[in-house]
């Protein structure tokens, strides 16, 4: 029986159909801004087709029936959505729970090794990824397989790694108060980085969007944008190293999310790995831990397809 699977972020809503545990089929991406709520987007995707079950991954905490997205105006009631769509079962899960559930099912050619050694079987796995926000999850082994942890780890406090980053953090603190990792490790975060670095450098910043920052860095036409992308790579490595230490992630750390893929060669793999390991006395602990860049773009849907409903 085919079920609806979805991965809904702050910008994109991705839909597919899948057999439980099977590959996503008939994938389609819709823009969040084009629809008033998830129900309208789902109905547009289904186009009159009926399904009895659905697993929907959302980029926000799932703590009650009422779901409000962190980085978009969408909100909905789980019970009301189930009734509107006529579903016998509906599971709404955090988007990085879905990302984490996909990791054991990725093929070797869907991953790029960023450094480290061999994962230790049966040890925790870390997953993080910058997109519209910064998602963080983990896979914890248990008697009956993996458990994916829902977290809001993207909102932990940013930890600068050098004097330049400390000065940058001071500027961002004046602007935001609390500066989380997500404030710099996300689409908007890339622009936040460039704006803070422009202030530090006493330069005018022509870039007005994250895409502008990336484009200027790609051509080398803006030194501030080049530094912003390099700083982004380093800070992502620091966040990944912190995650590995917190989890004891000897099973490895996976970097998902769309931004690193879109950056392509601008994503400084070497800087990422250096900062991943740069944890003082814990370098020896971190050096063997492998880190991978996830190359497959639909891992949220793949993980949703592998989520077990209560009837299974």
Describe the protein:
It is built from eleven helices and 13 strands. With 312 residues, the chain is an alpha/beta fold. The chain has a six-stranded mixed sheet with strand order 8-13-12-9-10-11, sandwiched between helices. Helix 3 packs across helix 11. The radius of gyration is 20 Å and the shape is globular. The chain starts with a strand and ends in a 7-residue tail after the last helix. It is found in: Cytoplasm. Belongs to the bacterial glucokinase family. Its EC number is 2.7.1.2. InterPro entries: ATPase_NBD (IPR043129), Bacterial_glucokinase (IPR050201), Glucokinase (IPR003836).
Summarize the structure.
The protein contains eleven helices and 13 strands. The chain is α/β, with parallel strands linked by helices and about 300 residues long.
Fold-level CATH name of the largest domain: Hexokinase, domain 1
Largest sheet at a glance?
6 strands, mixed
Number of strands: 13
Q: What is the CATH domain class of the largest domain?
A: Alpha Beta
* Helix-strand pattern: EEEHEEEHEHEEEEHHHHEHHHEH
Report the structural category: alpha/beta
Range of strand content: 15-25%
Whole-angstrom Rg: 20 Å
Low-pLDDT sequence parts: none
Strand order of the largest sheet: 8-13-12-9-10-11
Shape: globular
Whole-number tally of structural domains: 2
Overall average residue pLDDT = 95
CATH architecture of the largest domain: 3-Layer(aba) Sandwich
Total number of helical segments? 11
Helix content: 25-40%
Distance between the amino and carboxyl termini: 12 Å
Q: From the structure provided, what is the oligomeric state, counting identical versus distinct chains?
A: single chain
